[in-house]
């Protein structure tokens, strides 16, 4: 089972690409988002204790029902815990990948949908343990996709490895070369709560921005930030849906595919 270590100060009780790429503009530095919430009056702000898994449209984990005894996504106090085991396999990819993800945003029974031309902000806090490694193949811990076409991933947050260096990178994944929007070394951000703040304008030539904070609150230092235009993130006549969790290839080094977990809390999303 993934390690049971909790963040310091927390107990259990309290606690692919489917379209042709579009042209890119170079990333530019931009003003960081408000640290406490993405918008003043967010449309999505689930409380794990009362909303539970109804905060999401659904959960994608063990879709082949190989391990019915395992608990993949659970509420622990003020946060959500996403578990994954090294022997998990998803029903896609011919056995080369694994997945424990949530999909979508639901507030009071209403699904929130991101459409072309709209300006959205998303913010959340995340805890990455030492057992969740960057990998030489894909490891997404956030994705945006289009449900009706299964289009995407469009924009992702990835844990990558090149030799001994592990990185956390916000990427325009469906653009040519999957360029980084914002990127920094992973090691200083492990085993603590950090903040991820996104801006999205969906469209075939949309825009995306990301701020990664090394900590929580408005005074937490910015570890990386960037914004990019001409980002391929289309709703394709449907809508763009965010996904959180661990979706990774098992074709990376076995030493990087461990039993592990990922924690999320303080989700907030809104439309300008």
Sheet with most strands: 7 strands, antiparallel
Strand fraction equals 35-45%
Catalogue the unreliable spans.
Answer: 4-40
Briefly note the CATH topology name. Jelly Rolls
Q: What's the CATH first level?
A: Mainly Beta
Named CATH architecture: Sandwich
Average pLDDT, rounded to a whole number, is: 89
Strand order of the largest sheet: 1-4-15-8-9-10-11
Q: Count of helices?
A: 1
Oligomer designation: single chain
Q: What order do the SSEs take from the amino end to the carboxyl end, as H and E?
A: HEEEEEEEEEEEEEEEE
Helical content stands at: under 10%
How far apart the termini lie comes to 42 Å
User: What radius of gyration results from the CA coordinates?
Assistant: 17 Å
Strand runs, count:
16
Return the domain count.
Answer: 1
Gross morphology is globular
The structure class reads mainly beta
């Amino acid at each position: 089972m993934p390690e049971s270590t909790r963040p310091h100060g927390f107990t259990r009780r309290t606690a692919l690409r489917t379209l042709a790429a579009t042209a890119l503009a170079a990333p530019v530095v931009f003003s960081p988002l408000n640290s406490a919430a993405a918008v003043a009056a967010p449309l999505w702000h689930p409380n794990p204790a009362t909303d539970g898994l109804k905060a999401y449209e659904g959960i994608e984990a063990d879709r082949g029902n190989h391990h019915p005894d395992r608990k993949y996504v659970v509420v622990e106090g003020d946060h959500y815990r996403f578990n994954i085991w090294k022997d998990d396999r998803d029903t896609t990819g011919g056995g080369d990948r694994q997945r424990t993800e949530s999909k979508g945003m639901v507030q009071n029974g209403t699904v929130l949908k991101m459409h072309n031309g709209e300006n959205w902000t998303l913010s959340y806090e995340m805890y990455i343990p030492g057992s969740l490694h960057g990998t030489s193949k894909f490891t997404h811990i956030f994705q945006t996709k289009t449900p009706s076409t299964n289009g995407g991933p469009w924009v992702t947050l990835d844990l990558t490895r090149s030799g001994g260096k592990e990185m956390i990178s916000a990427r325009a994944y469906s653009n040519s070369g999957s360029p980084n929007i914002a990127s920094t070394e992973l090691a200083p951000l492990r085993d603590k709560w950090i903040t991820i703040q996104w801006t999205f304008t969906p469209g075939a030539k949309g825009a995306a921005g990301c701020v990664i904070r090394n900590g929580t609150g408005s005074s937490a230092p910015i570890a990386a930030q960037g914004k990019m235009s001409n980002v391929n993130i289309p709703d394709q006549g449907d809508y763009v849906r965010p996904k959180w969790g661990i979706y990774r290839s098992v074709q990376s080094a076995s030493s990087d595919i461990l039993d592990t977990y990922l924690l999320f809390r303080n989700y907030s999303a809104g439309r300008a």
